[in-house]
Design goal:
single chain; Tetracycline Repressor, domain 2; about 190 residues; globular; about 0% strand; mainly alpha; Homeodomain-like_sf; DNA binding; DNA-binding; Tet_transcr_reg_TetR-rel_C_sf
């Protein structure tokens, strides 16, 4: 069911993924589908779990033996390529999972791979968390904007901006500021 749902999401968009749409695609009744999938949320979660697993597998393979800028580029390219090949699954990978679903997903492994990619920059503890968040939000943001057509009407082409974004991330991580105390507290 997850694979068929993922294919439907890639073709028609993650928002179009419903039990009735999947039942039509499979040539079964909705009640028959419910014998295998616990409702619309369950279907969407299964596709999200599949997407996270695929993304983690690709990321792990791409990062093997790499560090620093090379690892950052490999990780970024995996995310961008995955989003282009599987647009519905890419959206599914960002589905908010409940804590139990998240813990049993490939999400923690994917986060660990992202930490591995920034490890070459000698960041530890809280600074590593900040760096992972910066990398993840930059990759997700760029890829989402590109997928939505946000860069279609201007030059240079998005690939040139992608290269610059990855180089800027490398520079930011290479020159990461020393830890300052109380940065996370609200101003008084």
């Amino acid at each position: 069911m997850a694979q068929a749902g993922a294919e439907l999401a890639d073709e028609q968009g993650f928002d179009a993924l419903t039990p009735s749409a999947l039942a039509r695609r499979l040539g079964v009744t909705v009640p028959a589908l419910y014998a295998h999938v616990p409702g619309a949320r369950g279907l969407r979660v299964r596709v999200a779990l599949l997407a996270l697993e695929e993304l983690a597998e690709r990321s792990g393979a791409a990062l093997a033996g790499r560090s620093g800028a090379d690892a950052l580029r490999a990780l970024g390219d995996v995310h961008r390529d995955y989003a282009r090949e599987h647009p519905g699954r890419w959206v599914a990978a960002a589905l908010r999972l409940d804590p139990e679903e998240a813990a049993s997903s490939a999400g923690p492994r994917l986060a660990g791979l992202m930490r591995a990619a920034v490890r070459g920059y000698a960041l530890t503890g809280e600074e590593e968390v900040h760096a992972v968040r910066l990398v993840g939000s930059t990759l997700r943001g760029f890829v989402d904007l590109e997928a939505a057509g946000g860069f279609d009407h201007s030059d240079p082409p998005p690939a040139a901006s992608w290269d610059r974004a990855l180089a800027a991330l490398d520079a930011a991580l290479s020159g990461w500021p020393a830890t300052r105390t109380h940065d996370h507290e609200a101003p008084r």
